[in-house]
Amino acid sequence: MPPLVLASSSPYRRELLARLRLPFSWSAPAINEAPLADEDANALVRRLAETKARALSAKHPQHLIIGSDQVAILGKQILGKPKTLERAHAQLLAASGNSVTFLTGLALLDSQSGHCQIDCIPFTVHFRQLSDAQISRYLEAEQPFDCAGSFKAEGLGVSLFRSTEGTDATSLIGLPLIRLVDMLHAAGIDVP
Known about the structure:
Layout: E1 4-7, H1 11-18, E2 24-27, H2 41-55, E3 64-74, E4 77-79, H3 85-95, E5 99-110, E6 116-127, H4 132-142, E7 161-166, H5 170-173, H6 177-186
Parallel strand pairs: 1-2, 1-3
Antiparallel strand pairs: 3-4, 3-5, 5-6, 6-7
C-alpha cells in the first residue's frame, strides 16, 4: 500500500481520517485559497482540494495524497471562517431559520502516476430559529471561530439544527469518509 498523506493542518480532518484505521501522515500545504474570478463554489472547492494535494506531491512522490476543502453557502453568499465573535454571531443570525449548504471538495492524488480522483460532496443543514441569547450562549461555549458556518457539528453545534440532509455526515466536518473510501478502493486500498 502506498503511504497516505493528508494535505491539511485541520485537527478535525485528522480525527476523521483516523477512523479508517489506516496509517497516514499529514502536512499543511501552502496554497492561495482565494477564489478565481467568476468561480462558483463547487468549482472552487474541487480546485482547492486538488491544489492542496498536488502542492505536496514533490515532497511525497510515491504517495496517495488526500486534499479537501470546504465552503458554506447561505443563499448565494459563501460563508468563510468567521475568525471573530462578531462575524460568528452575524453568520449564525443569518442562518437562523434558514438552510446552509456545505460543499466539501475531495481529491485523492496518486503522486507517482499523477492521476487524481476529484469530487464535491454537498450536505445541507436546516437551522432552528435562533435567538440572540441562544447564539451568544453557543458561541461562548464552543468558540467555533475557525469553522465555516460558525459551528461545530461534532459538538454542541448540533443543537442549532432543525434537521440535516445529505449522503455523508462526515462531509459536514470537512472530510467525506464515505466518498474517500470509494476513492481508496479505486486506488487499490482495501478498507476495512
